[in-house]
């Protein structure tokens, strides 16, 4: 199996003692690329450092909606200068989160919209977080079109997915597809979804799939996401791995093939 984990936070303290083991297990599980995404300037810089150190790691840079209130004047210039690094392949993690509202919604919208413009001007795909913000998110995306990118950790119905695709974006799925709570929603969606419209991710260290739910997540576990989706889609995990790897290399097209 050849897999790509399109979204992980490997700079997290959770990996400070055993990152090399984590990467070794990922390689053994067939994970050939990992996109490590930052949530502010410090973590974005750490993603670039990891990408410099490890072949399989690529970097995404941006301000997460939780951190929007910490984006200081000049942050866009900083991000733009980070983007000149050849292993920076995405603007993200950016987005809206109205579940926690750690930053006020108006500010989240402003910071997202500015970074979507950056994504467009640099021609780097956007990696977008969405929680309970479907309508405002679609408005921001429509205003910034044409865009390339992905709504990560997708949760929703086929109607919302079609609106996302209509904006030229893709979606990606985490280990949450294995959670009992959401099995019916995800099964309904995935049996209708064309296999070239989505990618796989872990969002490590969060959202650990069954059978390791409750433990720390890691990129090797992306294979469980592939296996569960294969069940929903009525195909094999190999087929899902192949298709999603091709889709990810197409979208993040500055990653070495
Ligand atoms: Zn997220
Ligand atoms: Zn994330």
Written overview of the protein:
This protein is α/β, with parallel strands linked by helices and 257 residues long. It has nine helices and eight strands. Strand 2, helix 2 and strand 3 form a beta-alpha-beta unit. The protein is globular and about 45 Å long. The mean pLDDT is 97. The structure holds zinc ion (2 copies).
Tell me briefly what this model is.
The chain has nine helices and eight strands. The chain has 257 residues and is an alpha/beta fold. It has one domain: Metal-dependent hydrolases (TIM Barrel, Alpha-Beta Barrel), CATH 3.20.20.
Spatial strand sequence of the major β-sheet: 1-2-3-4-5-6-7-8
> What is the terminal separation in angstroms?
16 Å
CATH architecture: Alpha-Beta Barrel
How does the major sheet shape up? 8 strands, parallel
Overall number of structural domains: 1
Helix content: 40-55%
Q: What is the CATH topology descriptor?
A: TIM Barrel
Bound molecules: zinc ion
* Order of helical and strand elements: EHEHEHEHEHEHEHEHH
Mean pLDDT: 97
What share of the residues does DSSP label as strand, in percent? 15-25%
How do the strands and helices of this protein lay out in sequence?
Blueprint: E1 3-8, H1 19-28, E2 31-37, H2 41-53, E3 57-61, H3 75-82, E4 88-97, H4 105-122, E5 126-131, H5 134-144, E6 149-151, H6 158-166, E7 170-173, H7 183-192, E8 198-200, H8 222-233, H9 237-251
Helix pairs in contact: 2-3, 4-5, 8-9
